[in-house]
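Following up on my earlier message about zinc ion. Here are the inputs again, as you asked, copied directly from the submission form:
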Amino acid sequence: MVLDLSSLLSGKSSRIDFEYEIIQDDEENDILPPDDVSFTAPVRVKGYITDNAGYMSLCARAEIDYKSRCARCLEDIFGTFILEFNRTVADSGTLQDETNDEYVIVKGGKLDIDRQLVEDLMLEFPSKLLCKEECAGLCPKCGKSLNYGACDCPKKKEIDPRLAILQKLLENDE
Ligand SMILES: [Zn+2]
Ligand SMILES: [Zn+2]
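Thanks, got it. Here's what our run produced:
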């Protein structure tokens, strides 16, 4: 969305609040989720821009709802990913390098942060999602989810490979 900063730039106000959703059928803001992830609602953006004696900064927070699968147990998960988006706001022509990521650029009194925001969102979106931190995953033999208790597969004592070498050395010693 294009934000009109004219009241800020003219000194009439020192703060502009905004809240909107990024419409995803807009080609420019095409939001491609990572594999195995689908976004179930538009990106919600909320924030403000303040002017402090000519130094403008933007604080925003973007939220996106997703559906995905746990990387360990493959169960469906639903969640909301939150991105904090904070930038310095600069007027076009005042910077040597306008591609610097620390800045968002005002052009003709207007500011559009959506492209940078979506880029950041895709960059920061976790590549691996878990249903819960301590997800026990699936049994590699029978495929049963171990989150609901142990499966019936015979349990072999797993020996750390490093210990196994030690054990072998000890056995040879005897
Ligand atoms: Zn899981
Ligand atoms: Zn099993």
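One observation from looking it over: The pocket of zinc ion (ligand 1) is lined by residues 70, 72-73, 75, 130-131, 135 (CB under 6 Å). Hope that helps, and feel free to reply on this thread.
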